[in-house]
Design a protein that fits this description.
By secondary structure, the protein is mainly α. The protein has two domains: 296 residues, ABC transporter involved in vitamin B12 uptake, BtuC, CATH 1.10.3470; 134 residues. The protein has 20 helices and two strands. Strands 1-2 form a two-stranded antiparallel sheet. Helix 2 runs parallel beside helix 7.
Length: 473
């Protein structure tokens, strides 16, 4: 069973599942990014998603007999997004007009979204759990042209055809909202960095007093930013109730609105970075579904996305601290400052943080093995595996932890940094390659890839005596 899950991860179906899981995170993440850059971080994304999901599903069900099945989903989309924008405007009025606390306003919207949807659902259907009694509609699915799978790969043409067929398998029958989510990454990037409105929005968030001094109407810009964040949150809610499913379920957002508050930070407050961070969470969401097919308690796979969120925030906090420390160290050099050298130190410091946090996943897996051994082949198989993974994870944490605690150790102990990086990457690459090769070739190839990545990061510069003595002076 465990091998079947691993094999299913490296498939077109799993990649499609990642895209579907990313969609309801990416939409509110873009909303969080826009409102955050304007200086009015929208904490109420979760409630807005619930309001849109509920309204879209219910309105589409009642609109179907009136406007027909073709237009009913679009009526649901417009009504759902209208509700989410209205909820965002409530936050704007309380905060921008009446000077209420922004965080408390967002929390109130989240509570309202969770409670009001259940109360109204009960009044309409007599059911507090879902809207299964209503015939809700779904947004359209995109069907790609049919293709025949290649029989073999005997020539370059066959390989190309196989690659196209693989891509077609990924994007075939995805909901329109998934395409819209990734298109919006480009649209938001263009809006923020290539339009006057985007410049005004960023100015309103960075320095509102300076923005007002040059004629930018900060309050109006912030209202617009909140409206956009509500619109994007509405798209996310619509995808859940009219794309992912065709009904509304109580609290079906499952914390995605809260996860969306973290993704812009991890993405460097950039639309592209936010999209990549959302993909990471989409991966863990899809992984949780795959792991759920094992015979383990359902709580464990449900924890995966939230563990990923906590780890991502820890990585972000450590990365920020590392960058601050690197800037302080290189400032000491004064006129002898070597920008290229310190860029390498900064990259390697972040790499050590990531390598240590990946090892933490191994510790979490050990806890799962001990807590639910039946899902991994029974006690006799799970406990030895737990001991091996636990020992390896703790070793990798111990190797990288010194460089996480103090960045300057990378400059003074470059050789040890190389050893820690090479061993950690060799283990991770080796585990991945062992799915395709025998253990020894996988380990050798993993070590080669580890050294190549270390060289690509520029680690060889740290081994030059002149540079090292200068950096530690």
């Amino acid at each position: 069973m465990f091998e079947t899950v691993i094999q299913s991860i490296f498939s077109a179906a799993f990649i499609a599942a990642i895209l579907r899981g990313t969609t309801p995170i990416l939409f509110p993440s873009l909303g969080s990014l826009v409102s955050g850059l304007a200086g009015v971080g929208n904490i109420g994304l979760e409630g807005m998603m619930l309001g849109a999901a509920f309204t879209g599903a219910v309105v589409s069900a009642f609109a179907g007999p009136v406007v027909g099945s073709t237009w009913a989903p679009w009526v649901g989309l417009l009504s759902g997004c209208g509700i989410s924008v209205a909820m965002a405007m409530v936050i704007g009025i309380f905060h921008l007009k009446f000077k209420g606390d922004l965080i408390l306003s967002g929390v109130a919207i989240n509570i309202l979204g969770s409670a009001a949807t259940v109360a109204i659902l009960y009044e309409i259907t007599g059911n507090r759990g879902d809207s299964n009694d209503l015939a809700s509609f779904q947004m359209p699915f995109i069907q790609l042209p049919e293709m025949t799978a290649p029989a073999g790969f005997n020539s370059i043409g066959d390989h190309l055809y196989g690659a196209v067929y693989f891509l077609r398998s990924i994007f075939h029958n995805l909901n329109l909202m998934t395409y819209l989510a990734f298109i919006l990454v480009v649209v938001v990037w263009f809006m923020l960095y290539r339009t006057p409105f985007g410049m005004h929005l960023r100015a309103a968030g960075e320095n509102p007093s300076a923005a007002e001094s040059v004629g930018i109407r900060v309050t109006r810009v912030r209202y617009a930013a909140l409206a956009l964040s509500g619109l994007f949150a509405g798209f996310g809610g619509i995808h859940l109730s009219m794309g992912y499913l065709s009904l509304f379920q109580r609290d079906m957002t499952a914390g995605r609105g809260y996860i969306a508050l973290a993704t812009p930070l991890l993405g460097g407050s950039n639309p592209v970075g936010t999209g990549i961070a959302s993909l990471v969470f989409g991966f863990f969401d899809a992984l949780a579904i795959r792991v759920g097919s094992l015979q383990i308690p359902s709580m464990l796979p449900q924890m995966v996305p939230f563990i990923a969120t906590i780890m991502a925030l820890v990585i972000y906090a450590l990365q920020t601290r590392q960058v601050t420390r690197v800037r302080a160290l290189r400032a000491v050099e004064g006129e002898n400052f070597n920008a290229r050298y310190w860029r390498v130190v900064q990259r390697l410091s972040v790499l050590h943080v990531v390598l240590a946090m990946i090892a933490v996943i191994g510790v979490i897996l050990v806890i799962s093995l001990i807590a639910a051994p039946d899902g991994f082949g029974g006690v006799d198989a799970a406990l030895p595996l737990a001991l091996i993974i636990g020992a390896a994870s703790l070793t990798l944490i111990a190797l990288n932890l010194p460089f996480v605690q103090r960045v300057e150790r990378i400059t003074s102990n470059a050789a040890f940094s190389l050893i820690a990086t090479a061993i950690s990457l060799a283990v991770y690459f080796g585990l991945f390659l062992s799915l395709f090769f025998d253990a020894l070739p996988a380990l050798i190839l993993g070590a080669a890839l580890a050294l190549a990545l270390w060289v690509l990061f520029g680690g060889w510069r740290l081994l030059r005596p002149a540079q090292r003595s200068l950096a530690t002076a």
